[in-house]
């Protein structure tokens, strides 16, 4: 009987064809029963999740909480600050319910590098209608050191020594992130030898009790020119190292009748003095 009534009533039939039973419910109550046009609209589409998938959920969607957006900040550190960590006061501009600027204290851990990102939760832009605030992401940029180079957790340094210092060995002062430190150059050090200074590198990020090393590359400087006296002494050293008797410059004339080993050491010392300008 109800179907016949619907089919015989053009207006109800139109509602039935478009909206089914939901349309009949709205039509049966009469337009005068709705004080607000949106009430009729919500009645017709109750449980249908909006019109045509367009996400129109009624007045409730307009009151839904919206989370705040994340904020990004670029922080520049010097080499040592990145190695050992630092605490910085930074001022950020963001959307807040009570203002737009805020200063926060940021603790940067030891071992960060350029490109590292630190996340500070709930320090981003404020949410709307009770939504949660976003997060603050701090992007690190590190100023390069003119002397020390970084390779992950290791620090690289290059030193130059004279060829006599490489032959005889010596102790030199080397710059590190901990300050100047003594480094022993062993006798007979070859060009481009790498010496390891253990635990003088960068702390491992989030594991500050672990550190990398400082690697020192030793470059041996060979003089391009020699004085006549330097040349004679070096030739004599060459002869002694080969077990030969000097012909042009007799060691016994300078050092008496010392043994061969004593002559060699004395000659080395003499060469070192001449080469160092003493």
UniProtKB/TrEMBL annotation:
Gene3D superfamilies: Urease metallochaperone UreE, N-terminal domain (2.60.260.20). InterPro entries: DnaJ_C (IPR002939), HSP40/DnaJ_pept-bd (IPR008971), J_dom_sf (IPR036869). It comes from the Eukaryota. The keyword Zinc applies. Residues 73-223 form the Chaperone DnaJ C-terminal domain. One of its GO terms (cellular component) is chloroplast thylakoid membrane. Keywords: Metal-binding, Repeat, Zinc, Zinc-finger. One of its GO terms (biological process) is protein refolding. One of its GO terms (molecular function) is zinc ion binding. This is Chaperone DnaJ C-terminal domain-containing protein. It comes from Gossypium barbadense (Sea Island cotton).
